[in-house]
Design goal:
Helix content is about 40%, strand content about 15%. It is built from ten helices and twelve strands. Bound molecules: NADP nicotinamide-adenine-dinucleotide phosphate (NAP). The site of NADP nicotinamide-adenine-dinucleotide phosphate has 27 residues, from helix 1, helix 4 and strand 4.
């Protein structure tokens, strides 16, 4: 079993890399953006020139939701053209493509968890490019798993948990929005799910939702982090209008995981349990 991981130095790529020791029968090839640029067809096809892969896990993405409006071409290139290039290379070489997408494909105007076949209607450019990336994958290669996830955090890269840990050490009080609701997802749990798909050798190709169980606002998430860290910082709940961001965020982006759980027979940890585990172990903190 041989697996190619693109975008390997990002949060999810680094998490997979940290887990690879637990899967000695898998031969892993991790490629960072400088080693495999998904926007360049030659760079993508070169990865398969002297190699064959059973799976390609695409962790490469333009993930800065606020930056996407300012750099639309770059965001489109990475999230849409990059996804298409990988899907075409996977099709040519018969590698299963596991492509990661986002809750931001939904507008957040409903208040019940989104199912995979609910209408995607992104409200920002980042979400729009991620949705078009999904469509490119679907168009170019049947053997794909598209996994939509949300509010990813880990000890790697930049994420909300790490920002809160930093603020907890430097601020006495902060304000955090409570009117955006979703599910924090520990990158380790998402990586475990991806490896479940691989280990099951599943052919149930299609689109799936994966986030941790439970529902939280950013305020709840921040409070939980500080409580677990015994930080004395005061957290004020505010509405989004008092924390304007360049890109609008969905107000409600909880993902329904019934299809995922039924198809793969997995249990998904609750976000509070995974957060507790991450903060007690801080295994990947760097
Ligand atoms: N982070 C979240 O909260 C969140 C939420 C929902 C869904 N997701 C999705 O989950 C996936 C993984 O996210 P993440 O948090 O791990 O992202 P990340 O930490 O931002 O990592 C993305 C990686 O993509 C690489 N990359 C950028 N341009 C590239 C290119 N042209 N060719 C190859 N690689 C390129 C980056 O490399 P450089 O560092 O060298 O630029 C980086 O290592 C993404 O698909 C994202 O859309 C994330």
């Amino acid at each position: 079993m041989k697996i190619l991981v693109t975008g390997a130095s990002g949060q999810l790529g680094s998490t997979l890399n940290a887990l690879k020791g637990q899967f000695p029968t898998i031969e892993w090839v991790f490629k960072s953006s400088s080693q495999l640029n998904v926007t360049q067809p030659q760079s993508v096809t070169a990865a398969w020139e002297n190699d064959s892969f059973d799976y390609c896990i695409n962790c490469a993405a333009y993930t800065n939701a606020d930056g996407a409006d300012a750099e639309p071409e770059k965001a489109y290139d990475i999230n849409v053209t990059g996804a298409k290039n990988l899907a075409m290379a996977c099709a040519k070489n018969n590698s299963v493509l596991i492509h990661i997408s986002t809750d931001f494909v939904f507008d957040g105007f409903i208040n019940t968890p989104y199912k995979e076949n609910d209408i995607a209607r992104p409200i920002g450019f980042y979400g729009d490019t991620k949705f078009k990336g999904e469509q490119a994958v679907i168009k170019h290669w049947d053997k794909h798993f598209i996994i939509r996830t949300s509010w990813l955090y880990s000890g790697y890269g930049n994420n909300f948990m790490k920002t809160m840990l930093r603020l907890g050490q430097t601020k006495e009080e902060i304000s955090v929005v409570y009117d955006q609701v979703g599910s924090p997802t520990h990158a380790h749990d998402l990586a475990d799910f991806i490896l479940q798909i691989v280990q099951q050798n599943s052919e149930a190709y299609g689109t799936y939702h994966y986030s941790n169980e439970g529902i939280s606002s950013w305020y709840d998430f921040a409070k939980a982090i500080f409580e677990l860290e015994s930080a004395s910082i005061i957290v004020h709940p505010i509405t989004s209008e008092f924390y304007p961001t360049p890109a609008e965020r969905p107000k409600y982006s909880v993902l329904d995981k019934s299809k995922t759980k039924n198809t793969f027979g997995i249990d998904i940890p609750h976000w509070t349990d995974s957060l507790k585990k991450e903060l007690s172990e801080k295994t990947f903190a760097n």
